[in-house]
Amino acid sequence: MSAVNVRELMHQREALRSQKEALGSQGTAVLDRAAAEKRGLTTEEEKQVDEIEAKIDQLLSAIAQADTDIKRRDKFIAEGGQPETRAMKTDPAIGMSAKEVQRYSFVRAIAAAADQATNPRAWKDAQFELECSQAQAEKLGMKPQGFFVPEDVVMARSVQRAYRPGVGWQYQDLRADFTTGAGVGGDLIATDLLTASFINLLRNQMMVLRAGARTLAGLTGNVAIPKQTGGATAYWVTEGNAPNESAQVIDQVALTPKTCGAWTDITRKLLKQSSLDVEAFVREDLSRTVALAIDLAALTGVSGNDEPNGVLNTVGIGAVFAGGAAIDGTNADGAVPVWADIVNLETEVATDNADIGSLAYMTNAVVRGYLKQKPKVAGTDARMIWADDATAPLNGYPAYVTNQLARNLTKGAAIDLSAMIFGNWSDMLIGLWGGMDVLVDPYTGGTAGTVRVIVLQDVDVAIRNAQSFAAGDDFSVG
Fold first, then answer.
1. pLDDT above 70: residue 187
2. Contacts of 188 by beta carbon, 8 Å cutoff, 6+ apart
3. pTM for the complete prediction?
């Protein structure tokens, strides 16, 4: 059975349970009415109750069959079986409704995974999260090392609920155009922020995304992004003559999944809480660990280390040398940054006609501190290189600061150098593949009582056009 049908089966099972509860309420109402009137059931009421009980028995049988079908498919996946959906992995989402996304809890799933080694019924209170993981596994055609957080939750937006008289609560994605509908009175609107997208949390904590790098989430398989490396040529011709044929040159930028593992420690007592604030805290903590790892790789990653190739190690980006030097060998041990270096970074990108898009500088805190005290023109103190402009402090462009750019780079005898990057950050692509795998280690904390949560995410970074970036990595600021 396909993963889509498994999700449909889960929905059907929930519908059957709802029908059973409704019928049970009807039967109870009949009995309560007779009891209130201090009489026995009439023939018609007895027939009605018998019919309700028969329907409930049928529903119980259908629910049991649904449970058996789901468990059989779960066992098939657990034993390494390859589901039929392996060839149809076009969308990693499993088809959760907005209400189900709201219901999903990271804390419940982590707590269950932490206890499963010693408690065979650990997932009893997280049965829904377990079913979601199993459906995601079938959709992806692979087994998790721990449990899968479904793509629907990873990509979820905040949702709004509207209560409409006679209809009840209706869930809808939070959008600017959300309305209560014409002629509907008495609507109550509630906004649930707990399902803030895991992707949005990454955006808030990854400096390269703040600078303008683009996220391609929900990927399946290897991805090739086309790029134009050469353009058509124009010719001047005399009347009656045709121009020479020319063509654009098209290349591809490849994104292939590389597994990023990041971890955080959470106390057992925290996992026992059911507070919405705790749920939000855990989600943000997990996203931060992933964000820092991806952010670092995007800036300084080395492809030979089983990680994405970062912008500083991308062949073809523009090179600038500290102290206004024209060549690398001028300052053997690096040099302090000067105004010319800032301008040269911009010029390197502009001479390749790449100075468009999300243009910004990026460096670390010590370089920023130095530039805030360094005048543009020697011997004056009127204007510092790093201006007091919050939106465009460096050469009229935004400037982002992150200590992911280390201050211990080496050159010659120097061991305390820093880097600065300028470029069109929208030409940096961050690919994220569906199925975030969460592995819980309950033993690492020992007597401290902490649980280690390891998040495994398939990710890659690609620079669409190397000419869109320029960097210097020999700035000496102490």
1. no
2. 162, 163
3. 0.69
